[in-house]
Amino acid sequence: MAPRRLRLNSWTAQGSCLAPAIPRPLFLYGLSLCFCFFLLSCGQPASNRLNPKAPKEAYNITEMEVRNERFLSTVHVPVSIALGDVERQINAQVNGLIYEDNSLEDNNRDQFMTKVWKRGTILVTAEDSLFHFTVPLRIWVKAGVSVLGFTQYKETEFEIDLRFKTKFDLDKDWSVHTQTQADGYGWVRKPTVSVVGVNIPITNFVSRMIDKNLGTITKTIDQQVRRNVDIRTPVLKVWNTLREPYLLSEKYRTYLQVVPKRVLITPLRFEGRIIRATIGIEGFTLTTTGAKPEVHPAVSLPDLTVVSQVKDDFQIGLLSEATYPEVAKIAAEEFVGKSFSFNENRYHVTITSIDLYGQNENLIIKAGLKGTINGDIYLRGRPYYDAHDQTISLKDLHFDLDTKNILAQSASWLLKGTFARTLEKQLTIPVGSQIADMQKLLQQQLKNNQLAKGVVINGQIDEIRPDQVYLTPTAMLAVVNAHGRLDVKVEGLQ
User: How far is residue 377's CA from residue 198's CA, in Å, rounded to a whole number?
Assistant: First the structure.
């Protein structure tokens, strides 16, 4: 009788469920096949299915930040002021009694009192960078007159035209600064006094008194001009007019804004009866979309800077927008259903879908494929504005790193083919019509447009220079810089 242990082993080898025993060589062969199948299934996805990691969506800038990008410009303001306007300003401000000396004891007991009134219209001419004023005056005088050793006080009244020449400047705080010198005078009605019923001319005496007091008179005129001639108010009016948002396009709800920072001015030039100068308002220009921006009027002006020349340099950014759904639709119309063959038709893929989004400065393209391989792949490239074709195009389009690593293991033929180069070459987004429309509207609005009474704007766009394409969370924005000149002509002092 066989040992019990052996009987147990014999029963186990034959199976406990009455199953026939599997020959050992056949069992090992089947096990080897299963192991090989397992290795193959682990080394390659079923049906060559791709599943790379999607690049993370990210943006460095918002649409509003792009639209509010500022461009340093100089608004060129040639100013022409008629001397008639200067006369009007001065005559409106200088009226009535303009000078008086009410003491006989001052000025070393000069025994002289006087009051001076403006008699008529002050006339203004200009020559050799100087203003020439003719001031019609009525003068009352009380003076001590010595007769036979006795001093008698006599009064007289006469009319005279005093002439002055003045150098005119503007101070940094926009106040008017003048340096006035006497330039002679002419009698209209000569002074006389009555002594014992006889009118005695005292022209020589009064002349000496006038000559003696001309320094005081010119000083007083300068003080009056500085106090009463107001340049700051009309310039502040122009300043606030320029700061007002300026509608460029109702269709695109686009406004032009000037954010002035500094005011420049050239020295005054005299041409006949016209005073000319050029004011440069240096600041930032920007375009905004949506509701009209609210701008509160300024109550003061920055300091004035005198320069020999004001640049004529104006620029503004024109924007064209392409949303990601719009771009994806254009790309789908171009590529979905398109097939690519590789290695003499050994491999092939067909594009089934296209999607796009941004990752900082790069545009991410998600392309669905079917064919020799199936699934999604990701490519990245940098968008730019092609000025020649007026399109948003891509450069340096290549497979994303994770996609590249997976393709290197399973479909290196796709890496070595023309797939990425074809997408780079053919994926373009036309934006030229938007930019052309904006340029046309801008030019129309800058042509002989009256902003306010006496303030007319004229501009010319001479050149369009590409800037760059910005990727924002909502859209791709192509920015081009419009360069030209912008003149704001100010007629007179209103």
Answer: 119
